[in-house]
Amino acid sequence: MNAVASALLNGAILSAFLAAAVWLCLRLAPRHFLNAATRHMVWWMVLGITIALPVFQLPVHRARPAKPVQVRLPAVETTQTIPRISALPAPREVKPARPIATPLPRLPFPIEVPATGWLQPILWIWVTASALLLVRLLIDYAALNRRKRRAKDVPPPLAARAVNWLKICGGKRKCVRLAATDEIDVPVAVGPRNLSILIPARIMVALESGGISDDALDQIGLHEAAHLARYDDYGLLLERVIEALFALHPVVRWITRQIDLEREIACDDFVVQATLRPRSYAGCLANMVELCGVVRPALGAAPVADDLSHLTRRVELLLDTTRRTGTRLLKARLTVVIAIVVALACLAGKTRLVAFASPVVQYAQQHLGPLPALMLPRFAAPQQEPASAQELEGTVVEDSSGGALVGAELRFHGAGMRELAADLETDREGRFRAPDLPAGEYSVDVSKPNYITTSFRLHVPGVAPAVRLIRYGVIEGEATDSGGRPLPARILDQGVMLGMARISVLVKKPGREEFQFLRQTTPEDGRYRIFDLAPGNYALALWYYGLKDGMGMQFYPDNTHPRLFTVSGGEEYRDINFSTTPGLASRVSGKIDLPKPEMQFALALGIPDQPMLPIARTVTEKDGSFQFEKVPSGSYDLFVAGPTGGYTGTEEILAPGESFYGRARIQVAGQNVEGLTVAISAARSFSVVLRSHNSESPEPGCPQSAAISLTPLEPWGIFFPTNTRASFAAAQVVPNLPPGRFRVFAGELGSGCYQLNPPVVDLSSDIAGPVAVELAAAGSIHGVLHAGSARPSEFAVVLLDAEGDTGAEAQIAFPDAEGRFRFEGLRPGRYRIAAPPAAEKSSRRWVADVAHMLEVNVPGGKPVDVELAAPVPAGGHP
Amino acid sequence: MRVSALLSILAGIAIAQAPNASISGVVRDSVTRQPLANYAVTTDVNATKDAAARDVKSITDDQGHYTLSDLPSGAYRIEVNNPQSFDHPLQRQITLAGHDLEGVDFSFVMEGSISGKVLDENKEPVPGMRVYLVSRQYYLGTLGYFLKGASHTNDRGEYTLSHALAGHAYFIMAEKNARKLAAHSDVPLNPKLRRRVPMRTWYPNVPAKEGAAAVILSPGERREGIDIQVKKSPSYCIQGTLVTPHAAAALNFSIEGQQPSSGSSGDGGMYVMKPFGTTSEDGEFRICDLTPGSYRMTASEEAANPNEHQPLSYIAATIAIADRDLSNLKFAATPGIPLNGEVVWDGEPPQTPVSASLSVWLQPLLRSGMGGEETNAKSSIPGTFTVPDLLMDEYAVHVFLKVPGLYVKDVTYGAKSVSYAPLQVGSDAELRVIIGHDGGTVRVGVADKDGNPVGDMRVLLVPVEAGSEAALQSMLITGTTDQLGNYTSRTLAPGKYYVAASSDYFDATPESIGKIWQSRSRFQEVDLAAKGSSQVSLEPMKID
What distance in Å separates residue A530's CA from the closest CA in chain B? Predict the structure, then answer.
């Protein structure tokens, strides 16, 4: 009795090592080396050996004591005895070796089970458990047959499909019955007599109501038919009997679970092979779980959806494109693996120390040179790759059209790596493939000219990302004079600009009242094309002077109702044409009382409430007189600033030293305005100080001082140089300014610090106390996506930088199972956010309409919490 | 200003003893003969030692008509400018003798434009590429490729290169646009993991300039469809350290492909924004996305106030990329060195000492001048001069000497003549400017077969000693006849010259210079005696 118990125990221990070794082998082997069908067979083999090993451990079959191998060591004589290893090469030239200091550990194996009293009860429990399980198996089997008989046949077209499924799966079996019953929870294939596929009645109902698609039924049916084609009904029966007989054998139980998993994956492979749509099938499996609930597998039949841990693994494998998905048994590779397993088993059966062979290896390496690969504790497949290398595949499409984007650049930054982990480009189908990407976290930038660069964080291995790039908007048209001739871009005289025409782009940023000047473009031959507009709202204006038609600034289509061009991605506004109008042009002239003779002052005419661009500029003559030609009728602000000290391409520059300013409102009504005198006065100033959001000292990452720059909110037509540095410590004076309105910006803040809501100062009246420029460390968004009935992982959260100067940044985050997502390191300011479907096949745009995206204010410093609701999918699952 | 201008006018009157007169005419398109409105016609009343020049300007009206009034008698160079462009003014020499001149008309050769698309290997348009107008021409004794214009592709990959001269052979080159470089590029270390990058590609779709096809425009032509499909190459990296004579420091660096590159070309330079960056604090850099070819890398350690002081140290190095990365490069930036110079007489000094001075300008050849950089020097004749802080680089040497009877015979640096060759600063050699005082002038009168004077003719003077096309281009002296068919050269070294007058267009391209080289035997030969003045009568000839 105790001999049997010892054999069982020792066999179980050895088989546990064997199973672990095989499991490790299969896990480490690249997924394209073996398919599931082959792995299924390997596990059956291991099961067989596991059952057989106790037999080898019985006294009759105990291995003979190992013969000592004589190793002659020239320098040091040892009397070490090492086990006989048939695979060892003949001793070659032996190098002198250090004597082995520590004696080889001797492990107490095999374990001798003493003949004690508790052995018998254990064996009785075993036998009872086996008997009960066998009885239960019989009952289950009978019940299943009963259900099979009671199940209702499906309509003939569906029944014909079942036969077709079996045919697609191949094999010798030809006939199968498809039936529906409400006595089962999951679809099952039942054999071995009267082959049937049973479908839960609720699936049939869902099929009729459109809850699941015809495709899904095909996929389920194919899976079940694959079981029958593979004769899994026989296999399953045998497996369950073995399970029952070895009821208390933990290794057998574990191996059968591996067999279960590989069997299901093998059948999944049939489905994938037939449909070529692994993603769709993965979705179908998930649907099945939703529809049928998670269930324990029936003992006598193979269900399509089994328990959750298996399901996760199956979905993961389905989505792994690198894996071998064939359905045929790979005989050659199976032979290799079987050879390894048998070798291991022989070792297990004959040696005393197989699993603890490292001292042997160590000794042999020291004394005998390299060992054959088989002996080394490594069981990798022929193609050896870094254990953690993963292949990642994904797609990049255009958001507005859904079309594949070729040549999009993907840059993978790994944490703590100086160089990119991968620098890729999409192919003609918009696909990219990153081979050998070590597992871990990456931040990925996706860029392509004409598109907003998009970045996101990615975990490898993980879901294949499907990125939608947002195309810039385009506005194009012509600018002509009143005679229909193209406007000249510039009129030069020996390098001096006498006149010019520009198309100015103004942007209305969220949370701001005024249009902000973004950029200007020069029409060439009267044609212009602006092609880098990020999602947002824009207006366009033509600005010209020194032309035949005089000067002016015209919004499109007119100055009273500027048109707002909304860009969500990919819009093209064509024929946005401008034409200058000569109208009633008047001369505006006058004089300035110069503070000192020969000073030159710059003058600009601006339209009130159109802050950015003057419609005309000029400079004073030596006596302080000035004139503007061809001024259209209207109301204007006249701005005077000086003395000047040079000019840039578009404006004068103030001379260093004391400045003087003046301003006046003038009316032009079709007649010359002459004899204007504009009073000028000394410059004004204000003081500025840095502040943190809630304190008077800098936040972490923010500097102690910052450069201050001013953007005039009125068209003074002159550049105001400011050299002031503001600090947290004391208020600094910004001198030499005109009586006008300015927005105050802080610069040189470093990479992690930003300015919050730049303040506006109005110097037309006195300002009490210093103006605070608020700085904050980078902000972050912590959000939760509520996806309703769908899974949050089906969505991507898209964050558009709506306010940045480039206006061209997008970030994506993929929410986790609970819908949580985050964006870190954000410039404080206003952002637009949305959660569109992320699925590869979804044609839903990420940015359908900027106006309907949620606006988020990120104050910087502490994270902002955002709750998002996912959009309701239009047609079932995205 | 006003007072001095007035003085100048008074001086003019006093000298000429004749009333002021005007010059008028019409500016037309050379091909369509349409009048050109809004063109600025300018001249200046000659500047004298005591009075600055006075600009006289007239803008053509809708009939293309202009009038320059109130001009004292004398010689004028009249210039017409296209109002859309800074370059290529049209010039005529006019001698005014107290009475109004009418019918001084200008035939403006309209500039052309070249446009097309830049496509990638998938025939997709490539936005943001830079497309260059390139000229192959002689300069400082060698034949090189020079940038003459640039444009960017738009979102549809389209570009337009304007201001292309008619009759000039241009090549078109597309290149990925310059951008800011990181100190340490993040391109993967393993070359196999790198993306292939676009390389310089020439029309028609060739990676080497030797295979490029020339585009020649007729006046005012708008050539379309000059499409370029950019080639791609494996990406290579260079990695190394830039050191300064002081402690380790962060240096500003830039890198640019060679031939063509930014720089001077003898007839106006072009300077484009190069890819640039700043090394790490210890001077380390790694630059990637380079394709096979020759590059010029420059680095400088900026002074505290870069507008007022030139770099503390500077290096310009040539790097050749073949088919692999270059690692552990080490470049040492050096501070400027003093360049001492000497102005000496050729042979015996003249009997009467010369009170005037000359100035020397060392023009950086492959870059624009930097803030605070001083490469000018002034010297008496004879005398010495010093450029105190000259950065180690390549320069063209210009000597400005406006003294009748004197000419620059040669300029040497060490044992090498740098009159017609670049000056490579490196040794502690001295710059020697050798001045001759035995120079003479050549007076040319051009008339047609019937003896009528022909104005507006290009006069070419080729020293007989010019032994190659490249030397000919360097030593060629040109001028234009006035309305009376007359031209007088500046002071020239005595010796033999080939002289010709032609109305043909020519430039520094080998096509043009080759024609002059071939036909110089048909020129008239003049032997200019020491301190002599030779008179030559020419008939206009075809140079082909």
Answer: 9
